[in-house]
Design brief:
- This protein is an all-alpha fold and 155 residues long.
- The chain has helices spanning 16-31, 42-65, 71-89, 96-153.
- Helices cover 75% and strands 0% of the residues.
- The termini are far apart.
- The model is unreliable at 150-155 (pLDDT under 50).
- It binds fe (ii) ion.
Length: 155
C-alpha cells in the first residue's frame, strides 16, 4: 500500500518558485504515515492546508501578472481542492484506508492539476515571451535595414 511521491522534471511549470511550492506540497503529503500508527496527522494536515492556500495565492498572483485568460477557471479549481481537502480531513484520519485516500487524493489532484491546468499558464507565458522576442527582433531588423540603407545612400 506504499504511496510516495517522486518529483519528475516534466512536472515543471516554468517558474522555479512555483515548482518548489508544488514539490513542497508533495513532500508534506509524503510526511503522512503509510499506516495509522497512532501518530497525530492533524498537524501535518493543517500545515499542508496552510501551505496549499499560500501556494494558490502566489500562483494566482503570477497569473494576474501575465494576464492569463483562464485565471477564473483556475481559481475555481483551487477553491474546489480546498473544499475537498476540508471534506476528507473533517473526520479523523485514523485508519490505513483513510490515510491512503487522503494521500491519493493529494497526489492525483496535484499531478493532474499541474499537468493539465498549470501547464496552460506555462504554455501561455512561453507564447507571450516568444511574441515579445519576435517584436523586438522585428524592430532590430528595421534598425538594421535602416543602417544598411543609410550606408548605401550615403546619408
Ligand atoms: Fe493551479
Amino acid at each position: 500500500m506504499g504511496l510516495k511521491f517522486v518529483w519528475e522534471e516534466n512536472y515543471t511549470v516554468g517558474n522555479p518558485k512555483l515548482d518548489d511550492q508544488h514539490k513542497g506540497i508533495l513532500e508534506m503529503a509524503n510526511q503522512l504515515p503509510e499506516v495509522a500508527d497512532g501518530r497525530d496527522t492533524r498537524s501535518i494536515i493543517m500545515q499542508l492546508y496552510k501551505y496549499v492556500r499560500e501556494h494558490f495565492f502566489h500562483e494566482e498572483k503570477m497569473m494576474k501578472s501575465i494576464n492569463f485568460p483562464l485565471i477564473s477557471e483556475q481559481q475555481l479549481l483551487h477553491e474546489n481542492f480546498i473544499t475537498e481537502l476540508n471534506n476528507i480531513s473533517s473526520e479523523p484520519i485514523d485508519s490505513d484506508e483513510r490515510l491512503h485516500t487522503l494521500k491519493k487524493f493529494i497526489y492525483d489532484w496535484l499531478i493532474n492539476h499541474i499537468m493539465y491546468e498549470d501547464k496552460k499558464y506555462f504554455q501561455f507565458s512561453r507564447e507571450q515571451a516568444k511574441t515579445a522576442s519576435n517584436k523586438s527582433d522585428a524592430s532590430d531588423g528595421k534598425k538594421q535595414r535602416c543602417a544598411t540603407k543609410c550606408k548605401i545612400t550615403g546619408i
